[in-house]
Amino acid sequence: MTGSTFRFAPSPNGELHLGHALSVLLNSDLAKAGDDRLLLRIEDIDLTRCTPEYEAGIHEDLRWLGIGWEEPVRRQSEHFEDYAQALARLIEEELVYPAFMSRGEIRAFIAGQDKAGRDWPRDPDGAPLYPGLDKSLGTAERQRRIGDGQPFAWRLDVAAALARLDLSPGRPLEWREYDDDDLGRFRTVAADPSAWGDVILARREIPTSYHLSVIVDDALQGVTHVVRGRDLYHATAIQRLLQELLGLPAPAYRHHRLILDAEGRKLSKTLGHTGLAALRADGKTPGDIRRLVGL
Ligand code: GLU
């Protein structure tokens, strides 16, 4: 694996829990085994939900776990310009469109479809796809609405984006997925970005999005291996599409098992008892954490 770059990319909008511990320990173990690089990236684009206290907590928890990472740490909130440049290119190439429907309008539209007995498609996370009615608005109407100050989000036109790529049978959109149990093995996964519909790439309050900033940063930081939870497996399809549109290299992926609570649910940031700070205060050692996450 020598020459590889791994990263751990938490959002400081809550405390780290055992799920994060598994992720960062896997990344750190892999980087150490190959004498490779491990980067820490703070994904704090949502300035209302991310706090300096949570960010300080991340550093404290990781140091306590014995994780070493390369400096400087990249904080996404300091790089909005990089994401704006990527977005500008997509706007220029007409691969995104201003989407004006409010949350309420989307809900009402889909309720209408459901009432009419039409099963509205949902994304892999279960959210209804964006209706995309405003995709057909003419340039003049778009400009009028924007000029009037109507709020909008930039959405990726997935159909236009797929059409733009040269997706011949010999060159499908796919990614390399390493086996979670046997790292010597990988398979090629076919990416299906249309399952997500026209995702938001930037909004008024946050001028970027998770997908856009993650692919820009992975490329700028030279990340070769993305090791993260299985909950982000399907998101890879959209990220691969964006990488291709922007001419960015595709890292290899490994989506690891999730740590579940006693009821079989994914751990959330509000489950205090699985928080690393709480476990530390309880007298647990970093070795105990490794055991608790099954390493
Ligand atoms: N910031 C994301 C999270 O905390 C992870 C992003 C990624 O690993 O791609 O869930």
Automatic annotation (TrEMBL):
Domain Glutamyl/glutaminyl-tRNA synthetase class Ib catalytic, first and last residues per copy: 7-121, 189-272
Keyword Nucleotide-binding recorded: yes
Pfam family, one: tRNA-synt_1c
A molecular function (GO) term: ligase activity
EC number: 6.1.1.-
Signal sequence range: none
Keywords: Aminoacyl-tRNA synthetase, ATP-binding, Ligase, Metal-binding, Nucleotide-binding, Protein biosynthesis, Zinc
Keyword RNA-binding recorded: no
InterPro entries xref list: aa-tRNA-synth_I_CS, Glu/Gln-tRNA-synth, Glu/Gln-tRNA-synth_Ib_cat-dom, GluQ/Sye, Rossmann-like_a/b/a_fold
Similarity annotation: Belongs to the class-I aminoacyl-tRNA synthetase family.
Protein name: Glutamyl-Q tRNA(Asp) synthetase
Originating species: Aquamicrobium terrae
